[in-house]
Write a structure and sequence with these properties.
Oligomer: heterodimer
Number of helices of chain B: 4
Number of strands of chain A: 0
Largest interface: A-B, 103 and 82 residues
Shape of chain B: elongated
Number of helices of chain A: 12
Strand content of chain B: under 5%
Number of domains of chain B: 1
Distance between the termini of chain A: 56 Å
Helix content of chain B: over 70%
Radius of gyration of chain A: 23 Å
Shape of chain A: globular
Number of domains of chain A: 2
Low-confidence stretches of chain B: none
Chain lengths: 325, 118
């Protein structure tokens, strides 16, 4: 049955990608891309990657789509007809594709437990991590503890993306009060948003703190919380959202998250261990692992939340500026 | 039939990868190029997660009575890659907004001869 679902979903995914190629209306392209992300999230669930599906659904279908729509508001929604021939790209793609298909025939069969990828490192994570780290969710154990250094690097990359977007766009903090911002006249949206937003934030907190036991963690929680505030900014307008959490505060928050993560590493060095060696954080190594993972997941959550929301602010204030002019 | 089931996932991955690649090299519009890059990126995610799947396995969260888990390592790599992916997409989109402001267009063939206009 799982194979059948896999077949159907992957076929739908391929069709969506095919449609994206030929559509000229960019608004429809972006919407199809949202569908594409949701379909891939479904496939990830079917392939047992629940944590990944969670991230893809909230990031790919949520934040990416909103950012692309924000860009379209500034650049226009129609793609002009292409002038140069499509034969050369088609030829290049067909040749590359044929070579890759030929290459897949050397891959080990899908789903076989004896595949090389399952022989190294992974058995140790699966067998030892519940004892060594003491968490049921192996993905969180590997992400936050075994590969903690890696995750620190990725948090820094997310942080530097914020610096990149800010140096390119910047945020206008002083918005005029009479600016026609948000959806003032949509009473239904106001009421629905006010009901939904607290629930979304509550869910984000659940994902943040339950990530050790079920699917979830700092990355997903940060994005979900940011989505709640983005909904608020879209419905009530940017000036009101700035009054709740301003861009300046979010800049400090993004830096604080990275520093919180790194300081756990430094503290474990101070205690006599290696960088990010959580065993040193408490007398009992397993308890130390728990403390370490909760704190660094919190750091990741802070940074991801602040960066995603601030990037949206940057795009949103650009769009409002161009509306005024 | 078994042969097809063994390789179906990888073939769809190659198809998606090539669809994304085609959009990136053939589209004139920069926003569409970014969508193409994202399609390409998701196909790479799909490849990793397909490799991590074990037939008869379950999600890598310890539960009673389960002996076979799928491989958690690709999940970790891709989870962080998705978040980094959206961060880089945001930088790309910000560049497009600046290009629009400087050249007045986001069609590749329209601004390539305008370098001396600024």
């Amino acid at each position: 049955m799982a194979e059948f679902i896999d077949l159907v979903l992957l076929a739908m995914l391929a069709l969506t990608a095919l449609r994206i190629i030929f559509l000229k209306d960019l608004f429809a392209v972006v919407m199809l891309f949202g569908i594409y992300s949701f379909l891939s999230a479904l496939i990830f669930v079917n392939l047992d990657a629940v944590d990944v599906a969670f991230t893809e659904a909230s990031v790919g279908a949520g934040i990416s789509t909103v950012l692309m729509l924000g860009t379209l508001a500034l650049t226009g929604r129609k793609e002009k007809p292409s002038t140069h021939s499509t034969l050369l790209p088609l030829f290049v793609v067909l040749v590359t594709g044929a070579a890759l298909i030929y290459g897949t025939l050397d891959m080990p069969p899908f789903g076989d437990p004896d595949n090389p990828v399952h022989q190294h490192v992974a058995p140790r994570y699966i067998e030892e991590s519940p004892k060594e780290v003491g968490l049921p969710n192996m993905v969180t154990s590997v992400l936050a503890s075994y590969r903690g250094f890696d995750t620190l690097g990725e948090t820094v990359v997310v942080f530097s993306a914020l610096i990149g977007v800010f140096s390119l766009l910047g945020v206008r903090r002083k918005q005029k009060k009479d600016l026609d911002s948000g959806l003032e006249s949509h009473r239904v949206l106001h009421v629905v948003a006010k009901v939904i937003i607290p629930l979304v934030i509550l869910f984000a907190l659940y994902v943040q703190f339950h990530g050790d036991f079920g699917p979830g963690g700092g990355f997903q929680a940060g994005v979900i919380a940011a989505a709640a505030f983005i909904l608020y900014a879209l419905v009530f307008g940017l000036p009101k959202a700035f009054a709740v959490v301003g861009p300046k505060f979010l800049q400090w928050m993004a830096a604080f998250g990275v520093l919180l993560y790194a300081s756990v590493g430094l503290y474990s060095m101070y205690k006599g261990g290696h960088f990010l060696d959580y065993n040193q954080l408490a007398a009992d190594p397993v308890a130390g692992q728990h403390y370490g993972i909760i704190i660094i997941e919190l750091g990741v959550g802070f940074t991801v939340f602040a960066v995603m929301l601030n990037i949206f602010y940057a795009f949103g204030s650009q769009a409002e500026r161009s509306n005024v002019q | 039939m078994n042969f097809i089931l063994d390789y179906y996932n990888y073939w769809v991955v190659v198809f998606l990868m090539m669809a994304g690649f085609y959009i990136v090299i053939s589209a004139n519009n920069l926003v569409k190029k970014i969508v193409g890059l994202n399609v390409f990126q998701t196909s790479v995610f799909m490849l990793y997660i397909s490799m991590g799947k074990v037939t008869g396995g379950t999600a890598p969260i310890v539960a009673e009575g389960v002996t076979q888990y799928s491989n958690p390592l690709p999940h970790v790599l891709i989870l962080t890659a998705i978040v980094v992916g959206v961060a880089t997409t945001a930088v790309g989109l910000a560049l497009i907004v600046r290009i629009k402001r400087a050249y007045g267009t986001v069609e590749e063939n329209e601004f390539e001869n305008k370098d001396d206009a600024i």
